[in-house]
Write a structure and sequence with these properties.
Metal_Hydrolase; alpha/beta; signal; Amidohydro-rel; Metal-dep_hydrolase_composite; 16 helices
């Protein structure tokens, strides 16, 4: 039976509908051209294709190339076969999750700065550990982070790179290689080094693009949906932002920037006042994406929506760092397309899209005191097809539709005994967890089965990361021993702690505590 998911009348769909099985399967011509790779039968299918429907019993066929050849309700036709056939009776199939904003290299550094907001956390992490790891460390940290995402059902990742100043092209490429070697689908965001001139950055970006083209890890690679840039945006003021935007336009690359994350009033006032710089740079539109985007004004939202600029919501990280709650229902009223991301494992701590959806859903309902203001189908879309849209890759991934990559997850609600299933969409969002995640597929290939990686040696990655983090920690401990005990804190010892504690508020006369004083305040 084909069922339509019901949500509030004020939202996207009306009452539950039942359509006849004659609705039929959607099938591509390629299904008959070569033996298919994978056939999943007898599953409850949640395609997240914009229709609101789910198939109570259905099937998905992945062709030899790894793309969806057919998806439909009922039993698979007798003529349909594949190299691997899975009877998924009692299980749920849906698209793999996407994370639209991530910092994969942070994976080994969880639980840091738990008593700090964003700026203090940055001192705890970046100023403590950042000086002590190198390009080869970054390869393994990034690989570890991407595997962690895969193990949680996230098949496509936008990785906002490390941008701490003094980075080299080799470091960027090693970060990228590590994430791609995980087996996930990766969009790597190349970050401009704001300590360098426009000419130096131009040369570095040009060389980076040459290297990934030479290595075949540009958009010609089947697991690279697009090539992006990552920017610090207005965190460094007008001139640095214009440099980032100019490079993005010259090389025709979309760019994602952190914007309006920290709630500190003076910082927020400065950042809001600089918003017109994005228009000055000519970047407002589909090639610009704001990560976090919490402490906004209605004029900023209005301009963002009318321009087609998008945003990525990171509820777990925003809650952990006390950054605030993005008012997503209001953003949508303003016409802003919304995706979801995990952010970094050092700030979200877990790479769990189930928890990320619930965190955002529950917090929004608490804010409005209205259970209809955001529905399970809404957050499920944000973390799948919505993120694909904000990244401009909705023709490749994000839903179970013919012609898209066969990136999907198989959920067993009987694991940890969360069955029986009454409403599958609500069940996945409200009741399921990673404990219910049976298999993760990328291009029709099982990459994780019951928590075990099938194509990449996780033990090697884990052991290498453990070894390297121990070496980094030893260097941090040496720094610690050299410091005055009077600057001891509850968390890790970090340079600049006393300075940070003394700096209670950001003002135009203070240096920005992380990235430098804004160069112009409008």
């Amino acid at each position: 039976m084909i069922r339509h998911h019901h949500t509030s009348a004020a939202r996207l769909f009306a009452l539950t509908l039942s359509l006849p099985l004659a609705f039929g399967a959607l099938t591509s011509a390629s299904a008959a051209e070569a033996e298919a790779k994978l056939l999943i039968e007898n599953a409850t299918i949640i395609p997240v294709d914009g229709s609101g429907r789910y198939y109570e019993i259905g099937y998905v066929l992945i062709d030899a190339e790894g793309k969806i050849a057919s998806v439909g309700a009922g039993q698979a036709p007798d003529s349909m076969s594949a190299e691997q056939a899975i009877d998924a009776t009692g299980k749920i199939v849906m698209p793999g999750f996407l994370s639209g904003h991530s910092h994969l290299y942070q994976s080994p550094f969880r639980g840091i700065g738990a008593h700090h907001n964003l700026m203090g956390w940055i001192y705890c992490y970046h100023r403590t550990y950042g000086p002590h790891y190198d390009a080869s460390d970054l390869y393994w940290f990034s690989k570890h982070g991407a595997m962690d995402y895969l193990g949680h059902g996230i098949t496509t990742i936008y990785d906002w790179t490390l941008n701490a100043g003094g980075n080299t092209v080799d470091e960027y490429v090693d970060l990228y290689r590590g994430s791609l070697d995980s087996g996930a689908r990766i969009i790597f965001g190349y970050g401009v080094d704001l300590d360098k001139s426009a000419e130096e950055n131009h040369s570095m970006l040009e060389r980076y693009l040459e290297i990934i083209k030479e290595e075949g890890i540009d958009a010609s690679h089947p697991r690279v949906p697009a090539v992006w840039m990552a920017g610090l945006g207005l965190l460094n003021g007008r001139e640095s932002t214009l440099m980032e935007m100019s490079l993005a336009k010259e090389f025709d690359l979309p760019i994602q920037v952190h914007y309006l994350e920290d709630p500190e009033p003076n910082y927020t006032k400065i950042q809001q006042g600089l918003f017109p710089v994005y228009d000055e740079a000519g970047m407002m539109g589909a090639n610009l994406n704001f990560a976090h985007f919490i402490n906004v004004t209605d004029p900023i939202l209005e301009r963002t929506g009318e321009s087609g600029t998008t945003m990525v919501w990171n509820p777990l990280s925003n809650g952990r760092l006390a950054s605030g709650l993005a008012d997503i229902p209001h953003y949508e009223e303003m016409g802003i397309e919304v995706g979801m991301g995990i952010d970094g494992q050092a700030s979200a701590d877990i790479s769990d899209p189930f928890e990320n959806m619930r965190m955002g859903l529950y917090a929004t309902r608490m804010k409005y005191q209205d259970a209809t203001i955001m529905m399970p189908i809404d957050v499920l879309r944000y973390h799948t097809i919505g993120t694909a849209r904000v990244l401009g890759i909705e023709e490749q991934v994000g839903s179970l539709e013919v012609g898209k990559w066969g990136d999907l997850i198989l959920i067993d609600p009987r694991s940890m005994e969360t069955s029986p299933v009454i409403n599958p969409i609500e069940h996945v969002v409200l009741a399921c967890s990673v404990a219910n995640l049976e298999t993760v597929f990328v291009a029709g290939e099982a990459v994780v089965e019951r928590g075990e990686f099938t194509q990449v040696d996780y033990e090697e990655t884990k052991n290498e990361v453990t070894r390297r983090v121990a070496l980094v920690q030893a260097k941090v401990d040496a720094d610690h021993a050299a410091q005055d005990p009077s600057v001891m804190d509850q968390g890790p010892i970090f340079r600049g702690l006393t300075e940070y504690k003394d700096q209670k508020h950001f003002t135009e006369d203070h240096e920005h505590p992380t990235y430098g004083k804004p160069k112009e305040v409008e």
